[in-house]
Amino acid sequence: MSRHRRGEKRPLREYLAWYLREANSDFRLWVGTYFGVGGLLLLLLYGLVLRPLM
């Protein structure tokens, strides 16, 4: 992480590989991601589907 300069973007594949390694070693990170994504999907579903029906 430190070898990249400040304005430089990391390759997505490298970031995903690092993230998966971290998530495997830290279960809470994985659970947090799971619930975060699930919550966002529920909010989208609520906004797109349920609100127009009410």
Structure overview:
- This protein has 54 residues and is an all-alpha fold.
- The protein has one domain.
- The chain starts with 11 loop residues before the first helix and ends with a helix.
Radius of gyration: 17 Å
Q: What amount of the residues lies in strands?
A: under 5%
Count of spatially separate domains: 1
Inertia-based shape: elongated
* Protein structure class: mainly alpha
Biggest β-sheet: count, sense, barrel?
none
N-to-C order of helices and strands: HH
Helix share of residues?
over 70%
First-to-last CA distance = 48 Å
Integer average pLDDT: 80
Query: Would you count the extended β strands for me?
Result: 0
Poorly predicted segments: none
Instruction: Please give the count of helices.
Output: 2
